[in-house]
Predict the 3D structure of the following.
Amino acid sequence: MNQPMQIPHLPARLLPCLSAGLLMLALTPAILANGGSSQKGIVEVGNVMPGKARVSTNVALEEEDLEIVLRDRTAHVDVRYRMTNTGAATTQPFFFPVESWSGPLEYTITADGEALEAADIEGPAIHGPRILDGEVDPSARSKRWWKQSSIPFAAGQSREVRIRFVADYYEEVSAVSDDFVTNGKAFQYAVSPAATWKGSIRKGRVQVRVETVRPEDCVIERPAGRFQPTASNVFEWKFTALKPTLADDIRIRVTPAERGYGGGYSPDEDHSMSRQYRIIGKRYFLDHADFVATASTSQDPDSGAKSDVTTLGGRTEEQLWVAGGDKGGVGEWVRFETTRLLPLDAILVRGGFGENPEEWRRFPRLASLHVVLNDEFEFDVKLPDSTYDERWPDFPIVVRGYTKPVRTVKLVVTGIHPGSAPLNACISSVRFSAKLAKMPKIRPAR
C-alpha cells in the first residue's frame, strides 16, 4: 500500500486534485462566530487545454516545467510549456481551467516572452450554495471559469508558453459560536488535462518548494512515490513520455485538519474569551493570553488610538502597543510573564495596526524580532509583510528546540516593514500557544 510522503523538518508546508488542478483559500474561523460553514478562494486549477472539452488538435505539448512555491498564505505557480504545431498554420485556442468561489483567477500568460490577453469565460455552478450563520446564500456557489487566449502557430513552429499566478489556498470551515472544525489548507494541481493535446508529454519536471513556517505539517498525498527530495525543502518529480491520467494529478496537504474550542468550555477552566483549545490529531494546544505585559517604552499614535501594552492579548480592537524611541521602534521590547507554566509551541503575534486598509498601511509592520524565553533561550525570527486582509490569523513564531515550561517571553524589535507615515513599530495582538500533555476535558458550545 502506498503511503503519503511525510515531508521532513523544513521551513514550510503543502497540497493538489481532479480533472483540472486546484488552489484554495483559507477562511478564518472568526468569520463564522455564530455558526455555519463556508468555503472561499480558488478550488481547482490545471494544465492548459485546447478547448473547454476534449477536441482534436495538431499542437503537441512536448515539454512541461512546473514550479510550485508554497508559502504560508499563498501558492506561487510558474509553468512553462514547449508547444509544437505538427500540422498546418493555425491560431490555437488555449483554455486554462479554474474552479473558484471568488471569481476568476488573476494570472499572466506569454508566448515566446510576448504578453497575451486572457478573457474570462464563466461556466456553470459546481458546488454550493454556501450556508453562513444558518442562512442559505443561493448566489454563493463555486463556478467553473476558463482563462481563454489564442496563440498563432506557423506550420512546424515551436513556441514557449508561460503562465504565472499567485493563489490563496482553499479551506472548508464549519463553526458554532467560538468552536470550529477545518479540514486544513490544500493545494491541488491537475496534470491530467494535458492529455487533450496531441501525443504525450515528451519530458517534464514538477518542482515543489516549501517556504512555510511549519514544514512538518506538509504531506504530498498524490501522486504517491513520484516526488524525490533534492534539498531540505525542495521536491521534484521528473517524467518522460507521459500521457497523463487522473492518477498523475497532484495533491498536497498544506496544513492538517484541526478542531478548536473557545476557552472556558472546559470544566477545568474559568470562562475566558482569550483562550482557545485546539486539537490536531493527537496533539493538544491551549492558546491563551494569561500574562502580564510590560514594555521598554510606549507612545500614543497620532490616530487617536491609545497605546497600552497591558491590553495585548484581549479580543477587542483596543489592543495596541506602539514603541517609543527615535528609531522607528527598533531596539524597543515587550516582556510577558505568565502564570501558566507550560511548554510553548508558538507565540502568535499581529505586528501591525489599523482598523481599515489605509490605517494599516500607515503603520510599520514587524519585520524581525529577537525572542528570549525564560531569560535563557534566544532566537531570531523574520516576519513577512502583510496587507490589511492578511492581518488575521496572527503570525506564529514557532518555538523549536526548547521544551521547558515557559514563564517569561521577551520580544525585541529588530526590524520593520516601513509604513506610509513616519510612525513607530506596533503590536496589536499577542497570544501564547502552549502544548498540553493530554487531551483537555472539553464541553463543546453545542
In short: Residues 1-41, 264-273 have pLDDT under 50 and may be disordered. DSSP finds one helix and 35 strands in the chain.
